[in-house]
Every structure is written in C-alpha cells, then in structure tokens.
Amino acid sequence: MKEGLRIVFLDLETTGLDVFRDRIVEIGMIVLFWDGWNFRISKIFTSLVNPEMPIPQSATKIHGITNAMVENVPRLSDIQDKIKNTVSDLPLSGYNIINYDIPLLKNEFARIGDLCPFPSSEIIDPYRIFKRREPGKHDLKSAFRFYASIESRIAHRAIYDCIGAIRVFKGQFLLYDEFNIAEDPFQAMVEASWDVA
User: Which positions carry the signal peptide feature in this UniProt record (predicted)?
Assistant: First the structure.
C-alpha cells in the first residue's frame, strides 16, 4: 500500500435497527494513517448525539446510553461539519457498515437536509470479509475473538467498536494471502467487501 494512505473507521450507536426510522445516539470515528510499515491513529472523533426522540429501553440495554445522557448533548445538525471534516472523502471502514451504518447515516443526513459525505466505492467492511471466509457466527465479538485471539470486554459503545473493527481489519489484512500478495492490497480488500451481501 502507498505510504500516506488514510482510512476512516466508523461506528454508530442508535435508537434501534431500522436504518430508515431510527436515530443516532453516539458516533465514533478513527482515522488510521499507513506510514509504510504500520497503521497509526491520526485522528479520533467521538460524540454522544441527541436523537431528538426517546431512546427505547431495548436499545439502552444494548449500548447503555440513556435519555438523560443525551438530553444536553449536540444534535446531529450541530456536529455534521465535524463529521464531514473527519471523513474528508477518505476511504471508509467499519464492521457491517455497508448494511447498517452507512445507510442509517445517509438517512440521518437527509433528515437534516444535508448530503452524506461518504464515498460510494472505497469501502472495506470486515464483516463481509469474515462472512465470506469463515463459517459460524459473524458478530463483532466473534470476529474480534477470531482475528485478534482475545475476548472483547467492551462492546456497543461507538469508539470501542471502532477499535474492535480496526483489530479485525488488521487481522484480515495479515491472515489472508490474497491481500498479502495483491499488487494493491487495499483495493483487494475493497473488492472483497462487495463480494457477499
């Protein structure tokens, strides 16, 4: 991979699983920088988000974010420019972002009258690579266990799930020969992300 490559990892915590109706309650983004030898963190952005609707108890049980926690935090419209500046037309990654995070965030941006800044083609989804390569469960905890060989202690807070996705991404990058021997391993991972729904 070319030295200087940057990639943004994204995770959302939300009021539910419906990408059309549910709202964001937390966003986490980490920008990784490839220095020619290793990936290094160059930027972190995380924020609770006021969803402007009640958070169902079923969602709070998963991520631990309560209505009281988001009562006095920014709305999505208050931080939309920070999100855009962090993405900055960079390639995007995150666990199951193609099916969930990207469509939900696009719908949220449309709701506030703005265009989502995400690229249409340079997306690496470690979930899709895991699903294509390995049998069994494909949730983030299972992926973390498989590729990082340790148990994930914290899940379903945005920044920690970004870190989990980074560990999975690095494990896949090192484990699968087609990425190691590809002329452009980054592009090979992008293409692999779109191979399975």
Answer: none
